[in-house]
Design a protein that fits this description.
0% strand; globular
Length: 104
Amino acid sequence: MSTLLQRVGAVLVLFPFAGTQLWSLGTGSALYLWPNLLGSSVLAVLAVMAAQWGFVLLESFWVLATAWSLARPLRRGSGSTSMGSNERELRLSDQETTTTGSAA
């Protein structure tokens, strides 16, 4: 059972990463963050049970970082987690290019 849970947790963490690499999934999207949170939580609990303290540290940090990202819109009071920081940077650079291009 533990091996099955390890595999499920790993897939939940790796699938969103593959999505960022292959399908332009934003790192700030709920589709990226929720599986990361669930998978890292499973792996952190299993690491505690196996006394694998390095993995406890790694996965616990990942859980906290992901939870922080999911809570960001709540801290701001509105918005969604659909646009990652890379997407925001691209939009800003597009706006600068458009502004610069029209001024010339």
